[in-house]
Amino acid sequence: MLQKLYEDQVLEIDGLLTKESKRLKLSPNELVVLKTLFGMYKKKLFSISSISKKIELSVADIEKSVTLLEEKGYVSFSLEMRNEKQVEVFDLTGTFQILTNLIENDVKERKKAKSETFISETISKLEQALGRMLSSLELETVRSWYDENLYTHEMIVSKINEHQDSGRFSLKFLERSLNQTKLKSEPVDEAADRAIDQIFKAIK
Question: What is the pTM of this model?
Answer without folding.
Answer: 0.70
